[in-house]
Amino acid sequence: MSYVKEAWSSRLGVILAVAGSAVGLGNFLRFPGLAAKYGGGPFMVAYFVSLLLVGLPICWAEWTMGREGGARGFHSSPGIFRALLGKRWTQYLGLLGVLIPVGIYLYYVVIEAWCLGYAYEAARGTLTQPGFDYAGFFAKYTGIAADGGAFRFSPDSAGFWLAIVFGLNFYFIYRGLSKGIEKVCLYGMPLLIVIALIILARVLTLGTPDPAHPELNIDAALGRMWNPGDWSALRDPQLWLAAAGQIFFTLSVGFGVIINYASYLRRRDDVVLSGLTATAANEFCEVGLGGLITVPAAYLFFGAAASVGSVFGLAFNVLPAVFAHMPFGAFFATLFFFLLFIAAITSSLSILQPGIAFLEEGLSLSRKASVSLLGFVTGVGTLIVWWFSKDLKAIDTIDFWIGTVAIYVQGTIMIIVFSWVLGVEQGWKQAHEGAEIRIPAIFKPILRYVTPTLLLLILFAFVLSSAFGWNLSFSAPVFAPSSYVTDLFGDTPNPVARFVALFIVMLILFTALLVQLAGKKWDVREEKKAVSVS
Known about the structure:
This protein is mainly α. The chain has a single domain, classed as Hydantoin permease (Orthogonal Bundle), CATH 1.10.4160. The chain has 20 helices and no strands. Helix 8 packs antiparallel against helix 14 and helix 16 runs parallel beside helix 20.
């Protein structure tokens, strides 16, 4: 069965869709927390260096490879790698470009449901009650205390909102590229920015909320994020690893999303300026909005200690308490969590599209059949994440192995293929077809040498430090395997982590089988094409 060929309806649509993919929970929560943790100024230096040496080069490479693959008739990561490299086995290099977005969706949609559910609770005044136990409410809401603890369907539970959010995602993805994803982002992204600006205006006009603590004022709060701090912190390799990791994730590079989105462009459609514009939009939301809202707001009411913490703790425990101390707190809390929901759904839609594209072109499934199959697979995976809620172990396991390690691997593969296999000269020429601006020449050696080297070092250092507990010291190295390893191979393994890891392995094998089946179909297509040419 043939599938309907899709395309973007406007240049603005693809830019907002890519920006919507990149702008997510990390912009408003993870980034501000990391900046505060690593001392503001020094982190920002490492952050922008990473943007120039890692983020932008991979972004341009992925946009270019995607458009070129689309021009050759492919929209999925496996198909694009095969088309560009001309070898059957290279289709497996794109396997992670299907697996990663599907794997991330399994837990991202659960967190998305939390955001919408918290917006509902904020609107009805639950989160602004005097003496409210935010940590206790979050634990009950998410089921942290015990597996199955969140398995409820009432409006005051995550399950009710998970069903709604899951359905919304598949409704919009069923509508297609231009009528679904593009429409949501065309309205969602401007709405997100307007809401963020309203909240930002409220935060910047708080002054000194508590006269008894004059040191907790807006100037000091902004200084927490932006003051130079201790420049010796730049010698800390962990700071650079954190900054590079944030750039990698915030731009959605290596997810398989940008390469898929770019494949729907025409041959002469610009990718240089479009890629730069989408990156700038993401950076505005992350640095200009997220960096000025979250940490300053927490600092104003609770001091420096509250501004540094886990993503979930900052979002669902600290910030609701902040809004409770504000005038019209329920209104601003509702806006904030609805903002997080919009950021989340524009991202979750983007991570469904690569899987749909692969099923349509690789297995010749109709849109309805592709949506049904992907809905079943992700439904099973989401149920696993939802049920195994104790200590959020299922979320943490998938996020580490698929949402972090696999993304690093795929990004590294992509830049090596672009710079060394296809060649920078060829890639450079393709990138500038129809380009409205030129990439500065300095990026040629950066693409060829600097970015691949940095990515290999980042992947090496991240796995050794985060998985095997390396202290990033060569003079006095210490290795203490983290829970990600001991949960699977330690003396007392965690059964949930092992079960989730087994599910990931099954998902990898299933994806590999589908790629193999798709390869046979593409073989037939190539044979027919060769016959017609001869």
